User: Fold this.
Amino acid sequence: MEKKLVYFLCTGNSCRSQMADGFLKTLGNGRYDVKSAGLEAHGLNPRAVQVMQEAGIDISRNTSDVIDPEILKEADFIITLCGHANDNCPIVRNDKAERWHWGFDDPAKAIGTEEEVVSAFREVRDAIQQRVELFVKEGK
Assistant:
């Protein structure tokens, strides 16, 4: 069976799309070709790496990439994780792709103590994990 190409998109490809990428690669049982990118490349957020490590998933080798029009054309699922990416994703001629929007707050914008900021990252991580688990369970 051919793997479905899932392309997770966010503004900077530093937190949310990276977490979704890590979860689907881990939970998808090899059924998906998973990629992630951003409208810009902000670099991998160290707190995203930290909270994913806590969940048993290593995304430390992931790279922060800008959206690739060729991958967009080939994707079976284009999933945006923030409103900015959803509103600004390039228009693509891809009739086969299902476009979905899973909106999550940007944990990189959290303010407060280090513990409060890391807690915001954990909340977003857990919400993304639940959504990815549902995606896999639905057999997309």
